[in-house]
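Write out the 3D structure for:
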Amino acid sequence: MEQFHLLDPYYEVKHRGRLTAEGAELPPLRPRTHDKFEEMRYDDRYTPLLQRAGLDVISYQVRRGLPPINPAAITALVDRWRPETHSFHLPCGEMTVTLQDTQKILGLSVRGRPVIGHCRPDGWRARVEAFLGRPLPPEAPTQRTTGVPIAWLRQSFGNCPAHADQETVAYYCRAWILHLFGCVLFPDATGDTASWMYLPCLTDWDTTGTYSWASGVLAYLYRSLCEACRRTASSSSVGGCVYLLQLWMWARLPVGRPIVDAPREWFAVGNPRHRPTFAHLWDQAKVAFSRTSRAYVQYANELDTLRPSMVNWEPYTANDALHLGVSSMCSEDEDLYLMICPLICFYAVEWHLPNRVARQFGLCQQWPVPPFDTSVELHK
């Protein structure tokens, strides 16, 4: 009976979980992801700039290659997301992506300033021109003022000229970061633009490195899940860092997990930050997945039969992870993982509630968990 007190009518009336439980046949969601990411070529001259910006670890990771996304498994998981608790409600108990997972997998900093800045919709084209050193083409869509077309970024900044001066290299590196944000860390539900919202945080390299990008990415993922779990149209999609969500799912749950070859070896030379993160365990996941309704139903049934003994509650201390010489960034902010705090990414303010998933930290789970209001008003 305790569970039913958690259900807020505002979320419940259109929630995918309720509709499927009542017999509705909903289509799988379409994750907005990193398709064709390799078309934005990396240049070694970007490395010192990305180090100053605190984005060098994630850049190294995506250059190694990103695994395919499993839309059916992701959708089955999203169906079990509850905005009231910011967690997935499963038979084995509540589980969620936390700041710990975000840093262990992505290598982003938890400690730092909130991801906010002055952001006005007027004059955004001029700000993009100042940021990238060239204007958007006149034929770029004017009715959509949410961001820069990803196709234009790839066409205009896909390959930095060999003899480019330092200023030009900086513009190309900024475009590479914007592409990274739009395709991997902060993809929106459209999937075809990189938001200009982040420009105030990216204009100065050293200031960029002072932001808590881990909490920003997690806040945006939470907000995207809170929206996606109530989308039912045939063209519905899920935004946010689905890459993080999928690797979290593979690491902890035996549902949709691919068969992978042994991780590629590497030599821990030079800067310890540049060793791979725990995402390296999935470097060789190359199996294509089906987006069919049949696969979606299968994954949903597997999630509905999960037992606690089937869950990998602490994947970062498991035997197959201990031998990895991971990046020093994977443990940079361990003292902050259990914070109950708001996660902020501009308009998205979402609560981090690790006390609801204590087993993920090797702790005894308190029950019942004290109620906490995640605020319907903020979600509006």
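The mean pLDDT is 88.
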